[in-house]
């Protein structure tokens, strides 16, 4: 809530881009800061990704992708922040007080091994698991062709990934970004010569799903997450239905003499186009941490259609103009200079280094760092951290999980679940120092939900006041101990540590959340438990 005299800068305001903005975007994203031209903030790759960790991440806080940048075949691995296994849980254990009393007696008697063994009975079920939405697979059919002049880069100034290469005398380009204003993943594929663009595209998922091309320019994929954790080697389709999802891939196709047709009911084959713009929207039936998926009133396909309809006829230049206006309003708030610039004594050497860094791949720069200790590489790492936070946490999204929003697996490491024994806090440490406090809003929303469940856990498990959270949580705001070694699973200070972020907001006097925190009790009640 804003009071008298509050500045409008308390909110991220995205103006409607002008015609000049769109023209600049079409000409090469000319709205980027002039400083970026002198000191490029680009992560450059010399070849397509061989592993998922080599791919380039993009995201709008809710919808993310990892861009592989292949030549014969491109893959965009997709994520939606609300795709999790499971249903809301109880997170209480009526037997816990008696067990806890026994554990305390054993500790008092110096029987520490026996106390640890007994403490296993205090653990609850493990957290639920973050899931991968699926993949956009693009097959170009030129696997045997030799390509040259390959470039792939993630530009932190524009939050875009570009892939460029040449086959023969034809140059190809792909441009990718995930738009927050329009909640859409955008990919433009173009060729330097008319009629030279041909490919087949499909949508697929590791989750139980059905994918079909309903027209020659649109594919719809619908599916569901498991309603419980899936043990290894168990078929996900045998699990009770959980969160449902839908993704729609829509194609805008340009050219004088192209064809587009449905292949095998689920693919679209494009031949002889000049360019194609792909728009992907996605939604789930998740309606909050306290609503069972079976009780949800949200139809994900209808929601995905609502996102697509207003933008499916917008041009690429219009979409990227909105995207840049939104993203750069956050990213351009902070600069960092650790190296000399062109106005200082070694201007020639500085300029040569900047030009050299723009040409070398980032892998090469990392390898040479032990010799040159290039400070601009440290600058790049700092800005990459800001980029990731902006890309995985925005007002209204889920809290950034253990992998942000990016995950390729059905069984990711540590379930990709938020860990409260440092990882979740670390995700948001940069928010205030880097003037990205809006990106911290999902954390406060999550703490409110966690406090509701945590008060039940505190009352039943510990017969205590206030609220408690343990080492691991999930989209359902799990507050009970995780299943595992009591040495880590029973750590009960997750809520207290998270609340230090609330105190940081109070100290910063951010009016919007200062009022909200002062007039709620969850940030104070965690002290009652401690």
From TrEMBL:
Domain Glycosyl hydrolase family 95 N-terminal residues, every copy: 44-288
GO molecular function: alpha-L-fucosidase activity
Gene3D superfamilies the record matches: putative glycoside hydrolase family protein from bacillus halodurans
SUPFAM superfamilies in UniProt: Six-hairpin glycosidases
A Gene Ontology biological process term: carbohydrate metabolic process
Pfam families linked to this entry: Glyco_hyd_65N_2, Glyco_hydro_95_cat
Domain of life: Eukaryota
Residue ranges constituting the Glycosyl hydrolase family 95 catalytic domain according to the UniProt record: 315-503
PANTHER family per the UniProt record, alphabetical: ALPHA-L-FUCOSIDASE 2
Protein name: Uncharacterized protein
């Amino acid at each position: 809530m804003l009071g008298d005299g509050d500045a409008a800068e308390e909110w991220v305001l995205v103006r409607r881009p002008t015609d000049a903005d769109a023209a600049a975007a079409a000409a090469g994203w000319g709205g980027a800061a002039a400083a970026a031209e002198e000191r490029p903030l680009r992560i450059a790759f010399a070849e397509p990704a061989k592993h998922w960790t080599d791919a380039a991440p993009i995201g709008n806080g809710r919808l993310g992708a990892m861009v592989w940048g292949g030549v014969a075949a491109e893959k965009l691995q997709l994520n939606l922040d609300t795709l999790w296994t499971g249903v809301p849980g109880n997170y209480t254990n009526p037997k816990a007080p008696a067990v806890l009393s026994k554990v305390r007696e054993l500790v008092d008697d110096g029987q520490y091994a026996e106390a640890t063994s007994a403490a296993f009975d205090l653990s609850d079920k493990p957290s639920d698991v973050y899931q991968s939405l699926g993949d956009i697979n693009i097959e170009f059919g030129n696997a045997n062709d030799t390509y040259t002049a390959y470039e792939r880069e993630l530009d932190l100034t524009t939050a875009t990934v570009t892939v460029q290469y040449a086959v023969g005398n034809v140059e190809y380009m792909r441009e990718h970004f995930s738009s927050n204003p329009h909640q859409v993943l955008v990919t433009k594929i173009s060729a330097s010569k008319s009629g030279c663009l041909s490919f087949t595209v499909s949508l697929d998922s590791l989750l139980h799903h059905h994918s079909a091309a309903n027209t020659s320019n649109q594919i719809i994929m619908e599916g569901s997450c498991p309603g419980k954790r899936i043990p290894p080697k168990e078929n996900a389709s045998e699990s009770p239905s959980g969160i449902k999802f839908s993704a729609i891939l829509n194609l805008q196709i340009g050219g004088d003499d192209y064809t587009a047709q449905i292949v095998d009911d689920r693919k679209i084959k494009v031949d002889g186009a000049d360019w194609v713009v792909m728009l992907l929207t996605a939604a789930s039936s998740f309606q909050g941490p306290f609503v069972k998926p079976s009780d949800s009133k949200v139809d994900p396909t209808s929601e995905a259609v609502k996102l697509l309809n207003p933008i499916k006829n917008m041009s690429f230049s219009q979409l990227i103009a909105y995207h840049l206006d939104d993203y750069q309003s956050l990213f351009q708030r902070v600069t960092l200079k650790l190296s000399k610039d062109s106005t200082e004594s070694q201007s020639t050497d500085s300029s040569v280094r900047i030009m050299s860094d723009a040409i070398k791949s980032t892998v090469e720069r990392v390898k040479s760092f032990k010799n040159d200790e290039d400070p601009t590489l440290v600058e790049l790492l700092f800005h990459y951290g800001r980029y990731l936070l902006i890309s995985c946490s925005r007002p209204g999204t889920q809290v950034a999980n253990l992998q942000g929003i990016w995950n390729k697996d059905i069984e990711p490491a540590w379930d990709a679940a938020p860990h409260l024994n440092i990882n979740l806090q670390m995700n948001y440490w940069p928010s205030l120092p880097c003037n990205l406090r809006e990106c911290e809003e999902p954390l406060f929303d999550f703490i409110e939900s966690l406090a509701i469940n945590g008060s039940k856990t505190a009352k039943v498990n510990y017969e205590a006041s206030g609220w408690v959270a343990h080492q691991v949580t999930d989209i359902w705001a799990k507050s009970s101990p995780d299943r595992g070694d009591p040495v880590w699973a029973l750590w009960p200070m997750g809520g207290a540590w998270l609340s230090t972020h609330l105190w940081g907001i109070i100290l910063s006097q951010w009016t919007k959340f200062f009022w909200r925190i002062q007039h709620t009790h969850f940030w104070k009640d965690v002290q009652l438990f401690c």
